Amino acid sequence: MKLESKIPSGPLATKWERYKFESKLVNPANKRKYDIIVVGSGLAGASAAASLGELGYNVKCFCIQDSARRAHSIAAQGGINAAKNYQNDGDSVYRLFYDTLKGGDFRSREANVYRLAEVSNAIIDQCVAQGVPFARDYGGLLDNRSFGGALVSRTFYARGQTGQQLLLGAYSALSRQIGAGKVKMFPRTEMLEVVLVDGHAKGIVVRNLVTGEITSHAAHAVIIATGGYSNVFYLSTNANGCNVTAAYRAYKKGAGFANPCFTQIHPTCIPMSGHYQSKLTLMSESLRNDGRIWVSKNKKDERAANDIPEDERDYYLERKYPSYGNLAPRDISSRSAKEVCDEGRGVGSSGNGVYLDFRDSIKRLGKDVIAERYGNLFQMYERITAENPYKDPMRIYPAPHYTMGGLWVDYDLMSNVPGLFVLGEANYSDHGANRLGASALMQGLADGYFIIPYTIGNYLTAISRDAPTVDHPEFKDAEKIEKERTDKILNINGTRTVESLHKELGNVMWEKCGMARNEKGLKEALNKIPELREEFWKNIKVLGTNEEFNFSLEKAGRLADYLEFAEIMCQDALDRDESCGGHFREEHQTPEGEAVRHDRSYSHVSVWEYQGVDKKAKLHKEALKFEEVKPGVRSYK
Amino acid sequence: MGRGSFIVDRIEIHDTLFTIHYPQIMNLTLYIWRQRNAKDKGKMVTYMADDISPDMSFLEMLDVVNERLIEDNEDPIAFDHDCREGICGTCSLIINGRAHGPEKGTTTCQLHMRHFKDGDEIYIEPFRSRAFAVIRDLVVDRSAFDRIMQTGGFITINTGSPADANALPIPKEDAEYAMDAAQCIGCGACVAQCKNASAMLFVAAKVSQFAHLPQGQPERMKRVRAMVKAMDDEGFGNCTNQYECEAACPKEISVNFIAKMNREFLVSGLK
Ligand SMILES: Cc1cc2nc3c(=O)[nH]c(=O)nc-3n(C[C@H](O)[C@H](O)[C@H](O)COP(=O)(O)OP(=O)(O)OC[C@H]3O[C@@H](n4cnc5c(N)ncnc54)[C@H](O)[C@@H]3O)c2cc1C
Ligand code: FES
């Protein structure tokens, strides 16, 4: 496997400008001769499909939901970062770059992160021009709030529904291109295989989720923008349909999977309440602007929150990290919550929670201001828990939320498979070992609106313009393999339901490869996962047929991929014998419980190459070179 | 949490909090629409849903029923869902005659079983409408909404380098008004609840959002004409001011936007 990062030479701040200047351009008259497949219609996929359609390419866009507008990006609440410095509080492209690199615990590429910060401002301009109703102040200018891991206010937001508004913006741009005939949309269609012809990605095989029909689509290039894999934990803040299938199938065809163990556990989610639970609900990080996190100083304190006097409360984030306080980054906040709960100081009947308290800010600002800022989140909390957060503090606990790992890409956002590009959460590029809040929306839109339209040209100008066709045997073979696979799943007729097996896998992953990991646990998981996989192929129970709307079958297919993928995740976590960002190996911590990185051995991207289902994947390393910033100990004290 | 498993509702009257206790576990009778595919005639089928916790969401209750059906070798009930937090607009269901059930401003996925009680009978049907064909059981085809959007639900601007976002201040009230309209999740409850199967609220929300922003002005007239025409072509009915749509809307989008759109449409005809 060749891993060429293709980072342009020259000073960091001019790399992207130079790259754009040196790029080969596709003659505008020829663009219509190129067909491009975009899998995914979230922020990354919709923005890419719309922008490429506007440029004149022929685009086919696929998504599993019944409408492009329902991609999981719609659920993002808090906001999107940009280096506008509208607040005059000292922000700049360089600071956003630095914060993101440091937030990622120095496990990402400088050049990619710098470019992300550089294009961030254009995203806000673009979205405003599309009619995205961001929050504004009384002078009519855009308002900002703060997110974790930053001391400036650079997050733009639309109430608690920023992802919704940004996605509807991208969806409207996409709708315009569909109306204009430049993009053809395929909703309720799941990508199952990427098809390689002579080593290049030349198309995909899909299943129509309504009719079950399995068909092929050919193109000059394939873009995967299918989101993250947090649902490997079963319970996460992600939507039910989020899956690793598209990315994992590409991996099985030779694309490298980078840093699969880098997953983010979000500190502020509603704790689990019962065994029937189907998802965990996020309470936006923006709440940490005004909410204070605490638990009692005493173990097993049974008193109601409001009966615990001030001097018996432990505002542990403020105590441990006085300069960032409640705005410490996510990995650190989550671990601290786990720590106090492990000490027996957790709240709620099961002890798996900490308080997020608005008492002081309601006193300071009034209930109305708090309601204006977070009203819909408070309402959502009340709806789920039947508790009133204006009166009693919220109870929160960490939950799987985001995956920094993903398919490996170079500076062009192309994987090591020529012609296969990967955007958004599905790639690994910008967030290192931990993502800062409000940076995923930024990255998805940066990739789709402002990067892929430039970088794809370099690939297209180097290949033949001949019309792509599905007449290669590779397509027929892939279709056949998929049909056999679905038949096999339907014919097992076992006793185990998909949900119950997925829950079991999730449990193993949460216990052994969740917020804290150690060698022993990871080895146990690596023994357990093949057993679960065997259970699936021997004993799964999926009713119905392929030729109909069959959601059990859909879910079974996705679970089968998770059951293989989970193994490289644990393998990666075992191999990375250091703590960094969201990857906390208990063996590597300071006496105070802070993560200890080992730059000498692990300042690299771990890229896994598929070798076969029951074979250990092969590890490749892309060394990370820091020319601009010297990786330091990440301190938020 | 333990607490929620028996305290089911708390209501506030004159600042005093009253707690209503319900039994911990409920047994329910469900009447559910089953239809194998678009061609099948379909019928209501009765299911017993025992041991339901009040802390479950409505969809989690259906998950439990489905797990039991699969164990009994019966096809599980198909229903649409994804985010399960009230924002993607995928979930639907007519529950006891109401789109998204009895709670105001709540999607089905956010509706909790604590709003029902032991022994209840619950009727569950798809979002039915001329323009929304049934795909299977409770799953319908809402692609007509997408097609309406494709005719004018956008501002014509290519990705590129627009002016600085703060170059054009927008009064806070206007931005808030636009946001009130933009909150629509496109679920189709408005259509499903309306006896005329009108999509006016859905279309009006989009039209009003853009009509209230400076960026939306150049295409304002063209947009409203195109979207209204597309809506008619898709077979949605007329609005006869019943306001059922607003009552059913999980985002409580106001019917005032319909009035706004009617004005826009009238003016567009004059231009
Ligand atoms: C609850 C929540 C809140 C969040 N809040 C914030 C926030 O405030 N700020 C922030 O920056 N980030 C936030 N994030 C993270 C952010 O929302 C996501 O990382 C981002 O939206 C991912 O965008 P995407 O385009 O990469 O993928 P997605 O939006 O997940 O889109 C994936 C697309 O791929 C399609 N797809 C998937 N699999 C297949 C397949 N096999 N075949 C065909 N199509 C497929 C789907 O249909 C969908 O269209 C939040 C995440 C969650 C879960
Ligand atoms: S499932 Fe997303 S709104 Fe209900």
Descriptive overview:
- The complex is a heterodimer of chains A (637) and B (271).
- By secondary structure, chain A is α+β, with helices and mostly antiparallel strands.
- Chain A has 16 helices and 19 strands.
- In chain A, helix 3 (93-103) crosses helix 4 and helix 4 packs across helix 11.
- Chain B is an alpha+beta fold.
- Chain B folds into 2 domains: 6-125, Beta-grasp domain (Ubiquitin-like (UB roll), Roll), CATH 3.10.20; 143-270, Alpha-helical ferredoxin (Fumarate Reductase Iron-sulfur Protein, Chain B, domain 2).
- Chain B has helices at residues 58-71, 143-152, 172-182, 189-193, 200-211, 220-233, 244-248, 256-270; strands at residues 7-13, 16-21, 26-34, 43-52, 94-95, 98-99, 121-125, 134-136, 139-140.
- In chain B, strands 4-3-7-5-6 form a 5-stranded mixed beta sheet. In chain B, strands 1-2 form a two-stranded antiparallel ribbon.
- Classes of the chains: A alpha+beta (637), B alpha+beta (271).
- The structure holds flavin-adenine dinucleotide (FAD) and FE2/S2 (inorganic) cluster.
- Flavin-adenine dinucleotide binds next to helix 2, helix 5, strand 6, helix 6 and strand 15 of chain A.
What are the SSEs and their pairings?
The complex is a heterodimer of chains A (637) and B (271).
Chain A: H1 15-22, E1 35-39, H2 43-55, E2 58-62, E3 80-81, H3 93-103, H4 110-129, E4 155-156, H5 162-179, E5 183-186, E6 189-197, E7 200-208, E8 214-218, E9 221-224, H6 245-252, E10 257-258, E11 263-269, E12 292-296, E13 313-314, H7 316-320, H8 330-342, E14 354-357, H9 359-365, H10 367-385, E15 394-403, E16 406-407, E17 420-422, H11 440-460, H12 473-491, H13 498-513, H14 519-539, H15 551-575, H16 599-602, E18 604-609, E19 618-623
Parallel strand pairs in A: 1-2, 1-9, 2-5, 9-17
Antiparallel strand pairs in A: 3-4, 6-7, 7-8, 10-16, 10-18, 11-15, 12-13, 12-14, 14-15, 18-19
Helix pairs in contact in A: 2-5, 2-11, 3-4, 4-11, 9-10, 13-14, 13-15, 14-15
Chain B: E1 7-13, E2 16-21, E3 26-34, E4 43-52, H1 58-71, E5 94-95, E6 98-99, E7 121-125, E8 134-136, E9 139-140, H2 143-152, H3 172-182, H4 189-193, H5 200-211, H6 220-233, H7 244-248, H8 256-270
Helix pairs in contact in B: 2-6, 3-5, 5-6, 5-8, 6-8
The complex binds flavin-adenine dinucleotide and FE2/S2 (inorganic) cluster (FES).
